[in-house]
Request: fold
Amino acid sequence: MEQVIGALPRGCECFFYRTHAGAEVDLVVERPGRRPPLAIEIKASAAPKVSRGFWSALQDLEGARGLVICPAIESYPLGLNVDVLPIRSLATADLASL
Reply:
C-alpha cells in the first residue's frame, strides 16, 4: 500500500472504505480537481478476483474508477471501469489520469 500511495501525485488524499453492509475498498484516492475517486484494491494473486463488496463500494462511490493492483504480467480490463494493473507497472503508471 505504501508503494501505491508513493506513486500518487501530490495533493491526493487516501482513505480506507468500509460500510456496515460489507462494501470495502483497500484504498480510495481523491485526486485534486478530479471526480470521481479512484478505488484501489491490492491483491497477492496474479489472477485477482475481487469481492462483491468491492463492486458494491464502487456503486456507493458513485462512478469511482476501479484499479486492482497485483503481480499480473500485463494490464487488462476486469469489468466496467475496473482495470488490473501489474505491480511492476506502478512506477510508470499515470495514476493521476485514471
The chain has one domain: 2-89. The chain is about 15% helix and 35% strand. The CA atoms of residues 12 and 31 lie 5 Å apart. The chain has a mean pLDDT of 90.
